Amino acid sequence: MADEATQELSVTPAAMAGGTTHVSDEVVEKIAVAAAKSVPGVAELGGDVARFFNAVLDKVGLDQVGDARRGCSAHVSNGAAVVNLVLVISAGHQVPQVTDAVRVAVTAAVEAYGLRADEINIRVDDVAMEAPPA
To answer: Which of 46, 37, 44, 112 is nearest to 81 (CA)?
Structure first.
């Protein structure tokens, strides 16, 4: 039995099962929101109506409902994402610098998940004159 050799089997991509992978729009929305919030000068995400309803939810203790995707919509098709963001800019920050930084951050975050970022569309909805409540 000492003469028997052990043969290793290598797993190659050709030996793997086929199939497709789809990343949902909601996943890209969460990724984009997290990236946008990390940019200095972004006070909040969401338009006036979304922020109004979030304030009402805060009052009744449901403040986390939908926050992960608020102010963002995304569409994923053929491995490419189109992301639409609605931002509130902090007072004292220049809109072009903040929106450029948001595009860079969101593009990097989306591409880190193996997708291509075709468009990052941004609408600045408001300016926050004071720091948002903690």
So the answer is: 112
Distance (Å, whole) CA 119 – CA 114: 15
Task: Please give the Cα distance from 53 to 79 (Å, whole number).
Answer: 33
**In contact, 123 and 86? CB cutoff 8 Å:** yes
- pTM confidence score: 0.73
The mean pLDDT value for 2-22 works out to: 68
Burial class (CB in 10 A: 0-12, 13-18, 19+), 89: buried
Alpha-carbon Rg of the chain, whole angstroms?
21
Comparing CA positions, the residue from 101, 134, 115 lying closest to residue 28 is 115
